[in-house]
Specification:
Layout: H1 3-42, H2 55-63, H3 66-77, H4 95-109, H5 115-133, E1 135-138, H6 140-149, E2 155-160, H7 167-174, E3 182-185, H8 194-200, E4 204-205, H9 213-228, E5 233-235, H10 253-262, E6 271-280, H11 286-295, H12 302-328, E7 337-342, E8 346-347, H13 348-354, H14 364-384, H15 390-401, E9 403-405, H16 406-422, H17 434-445, H18 451-479, E10 483-485, E11 489-492, H19 496-506, H20 510-513
Parallel strand pairs: 1-7, 2-5, 2-6, 3-4, 3-5
Antiparallel strand pairs: 6-7, 6-8, 9-11, 10-11
């Protein structure tokens, strides 16, 4: 066969292969999209139509945005103010350099949401990862209350406390049958393959402390654009992971951008903030987070954040493999509960009226202060709905008792349980408590029962719950060699690092930490 015929045959074969591969891929993508859309429709999931507009459409809209164009002009003239308070304007730049910088920022920030990736792949993977390492406990009643109280045409912003890089996965999965959430994710997620995954799931990247004012203008306008179009968002007001277990002081930059939009006359949507509380019996990164707290006064560098994210990526699949092997041998051990609960939606207009705040009449500095006040108020709502897990409750009790009998620990847990319920704090109670829940529901329904008898039965049920909480908490902390248990006693093992871990988990009961 002549050489030219062989070359033509090879080229023709490659072309046919690419055409067939493209056809098959399109068919598969279309099938996955139909199935995901059917799932969303079947479960009444809020899926924001703007997410399907495509990145090119969003990019074009941002490049034509007057605010961004004025910022680009200011950068070219050297008059754009620095993002650093009191800092001088940046030096003038050539227009083509500014255009390239803005386009790169847009490409970095704007996601490429895929309904099929979110539901057919992402949530399936999320469920497998969560169940491989935890026993999830979702407060279904509070989630259903949010679904009923949140207007269908409102823009919702879920505000979440930040304990682990796993928070994104857990909260997204907990809300999967209700809404597809677009997250503001940190720099740790800008590494392959996380960057592609998070963008496919609707996440947008946020650089913390980046000095270029053009970047912050682009980020602000993108955030305002998706808020205007009704995209449901999830943000972490703390701006980073807690390193001592307590809630961090909130950062108001993203909230300020959203509130600034509400002052524009053509913004007609109702804005709601939905508090979300998340807690773990074990945070996978707790050792490295406490090490940062002990050894450094400054926040971690981007490289360290990426390293922590890489460690999490390693631990989840490794934990899954180990648990598969344990399940096969009947010795499955997971890291206790991961629990999520939701607070009542906070209507911005009602809150502004209660506080007598009119943002349209405030200058930039006063508006930013108002955003800080809102962030502080939302943190109180978040603290109120962070679930109390067994480890958190036992850790708080053992910090006071140090060395005690099991009976004394149960009594302390019972008192703490009653205090939490009196404050309206949800308790994380999984499958071990199903019988308790059933009996309690019967007691509440039986109005004709003798009041004294009902009270006595309720007290006995509370005692049983406290015993189960103490047993679960001690079991997990003893497995990590933080507590030592004998037949009738429990004590904290010596060591500063072990005490730091107890403090870390005790502080997750944020509503008690904020109490006077």
């Amino acid at each position: 066969m002549p050489l030219w015929e062989l070359a033509l045959l090879i080229v023709g074969g490659l072309l046919a292969y690419e055409l067939a591969r493209g056809f098959v891929l399109r068919k598969v993508q279309a099938s996955l999209h139909r199935r995901a859309k059917s799932f969303a429709e079947q479960h009444g999931v809020r899926v924001d139509l703007f997410k399907f507009g495509g990145r090119l459409l969003v990019k074009e809209e941002l490049l034509n945005d007057l605010v961004i164009q004025r910022a680009m002009l200011g950068a070219a003239q050297g008059t754009l103010p620095s993002t650093l308070k009191g800092g001088p304007p940046a030096a003038p730049c050539r227009p083509e350099e500014i255009r390239r910088a803005v386009e790169s920022y847009i490409d970095e920030i704007v996601p490429a949401f895929s309904l099929a990736a979110y539901y057919q792949f992402g949530m399936t993977l999320a469920a497998a990862a969560i169940r491989a390492v935890y026993r999830p406990v979702i407060d279904a009643a509070s989630r259903e209350r949010v679904r009923k109280e949140l207007p269908a045409d409102a823009t919702a912003v879920f505000v979440i406390n930040h304990r682990s890089n796993f928070d994104y996965v857990v909260v997204g999965w907990a809300l999967a049958r209700q809404v597809a959430v677009s997250y503001a994710v940190g720099e740790w997620a800008r590494v392959w393959p996380l960057d592609s995954l998070f963008k496919a799931f609707g996440g947008f990247f946020v650089r913390r402390g980046f000095p270029d004012p053009l970047y912050h203008t682009v980020l602000r306008r993108y955030l305002q654009l998706i808020t205007r179009r009704g995209v449901t968002q999830g943000i972490f007001p703390e701006g980073g992971l807690t390193r001592d277990g307590a809630l961090r002081s909130p950062k108001a930059g993203l909230l300020d951008a959203i509130l600034q939009l509400t002052t524009e006359p053509d913004f007609g949507r109702e804005l709601y903030f939905v508090p979300v509380g998340i807690n773990y019996d074990r945070v996978l990164e707790d050792g490295s987070l406490l090490a940062e707290k002990r050894g450094k006064e400054h926040p971690p560098t981007p490289a360290e954040k990426l390293l922590n994210g890489a460690k999490l990526l390693y631990r989840i699949p490794w934990g899954a493999l180990v648990n598969v092997a344990r399940a096969a041998t009947g010795r499955l051990q997971r890291h206790g509960y991961v629990a999520v609960a939701f607070g009542r939606p906070v209507h911005w207009k009602e809150l502004a009226q209660q506080r007598n705040v009119d943002l349209a009449k405030l200058d930039d500095e006063a508006r930013r202060n108002a955003a800080k006040d809102l962030a502080g108020e939302l943190m109180k709502h978040i603290a109120q709905c962070i679930p109390a897990t067994p480890v958190a409750m036992v850790a708080r009790c053992m910090l006071e008792l140090s060395d005690c009998t099991r009976s004394d620990l149960t009594s302390k847990v019972l008192a703490l349980r009653n205090e939490l319920l009196a404050k309206g704090i949800p308790l994380a109670m999984g499958g071990e408590f199903e019988e308790h829940k059933r009996v309690r529901a019967q007691l509440e329904e039986d109005a004709e029962r003798n009041r004294d008898l009902s009270r006595m039965e309720g007290d006995m049920l509370a005692q049983d719950e406290a015993e189960a909480i103490a047993r679960l908490g001690v079991e997990h902390l003893a497995r990590r060699r933080i507590l030592q248990r004998t037949e009738d006693r429990v004590r904290v093992l010596p060591g500063e690092e072990l005490k730091d871990l107890l403090v870390y988990y005790a502080r997750s009961l944020a509503a008690l930490e904020r109490s006077p």
